[in-house]
Design goal:
CATH superfamily of one domain: Pleckstrin-homology domain (PH domain)/Phosphotyrosine-binding domain (PTB)
Order of helices and strands: HHHHEEEEEEEHEEEEE
Shape: globular
Oligomer: single chain
Structural class: alpha+beta
Strand order of the largest sheet: 4-3-2-1-7-6-5-8
Strand content: 25-35%
Number of strands: 12
CATH class of one domain: Mainly Beta
Length: about 220
């Protein structure tokens, strides 16, 4: 009887401690924990660097709304901007690296060049999000094959866990995130496909190899 009573009191004490902790959380801290839960579900045990990322809190955004060109703000007016970060975008054909901004709103993702919107992806049409199991910062946003889209978007992000987590939460498509090994296929446009190969080397680099594939080291 004493052991049963002790166990019951232990559970009650633990429940009270948890309740006290949860009630003491700030809205910001609660948001961080909710995001980290999604990151864990997507990347835990799958991608290198995940464990190191646990201690690094996600920022609300890497750039503020007023850092965007006024013309871009005018083009996406009416949409609630949630997150902005610098990225490197790789062309789908020649794989030339270009500096861009990734803007995530409540309903769409935008790839932005200075005062131009280069591509808009509505979350409702998003087909998938792919990244590798290695420590690179490459993410591929897969889009539908239609006239409005030029093809899948290949980006390199400094804060890959943060970017993918924000994107899949806003798009509500956590189940569509894939962590791949070795290689992945992406759509170039007009029914064509390209291949990206992931490998390990002495220093990080991204280049077009002799076979025409995009190689990520």
């Amino acid at each position: 009887f004493l052991m049963q009573t002790s166990e019951m009191l232990r559970k009650i004490c633990m429940r009270n401690l948890v309740r006290k902790y949860c009630r003491g959380l700030t809205a910001e801290r609660k948001g961080q924990l909710q995001q980290k839960v999604v990151t864990s579900a997507v990347f835990c045990g799958k991608k290198e660097g995940y464990l190191e990322s646990l201690s690094q809190p996600f920022l609300e955004t890497r750039l503020k709304e007023n850092d965007l060109n006024p013309k871009v703000l005018q083009l996406i007016r009416g949409e609630n901007i949630k997150y902005v970060t610098p990225v490197i975008k790789y062309d789908r054909n020649g794989f030339k690296a270009r500096e861009r901004l990734l803007v995530l709103t409540q309903s769409s993702a935008y790839v932005v060049e200075m005062a131009k919107i280069k591509q808009k992806i509505e979350y409702s049409t998003l087909k998938g999000i792919s990244t590798s199991n290695l420590s690179d910062g490459i993410v591929v946003i897969h889009v539908p094959e239609d006239k409005q889209q030029k093809g899948d978007v290949i980006l390199q992000c400094e804060h890959i866990f943060e970017v993918v987590t924000k994107l899949c939460i806003l798009a509500n498509k956590q189940s569509l995130v894939k962590v791949v090994k070795g290689s992945l296929r992406f759509r170039v446009g007009s029914g064509k496909e390209g291949t990206m190969v992931f490998t390990v080397g002495p220093e990080p680099q991204v280049f077009k190899d002799k076979t025409g594939q995009l190689t990520v080291v």
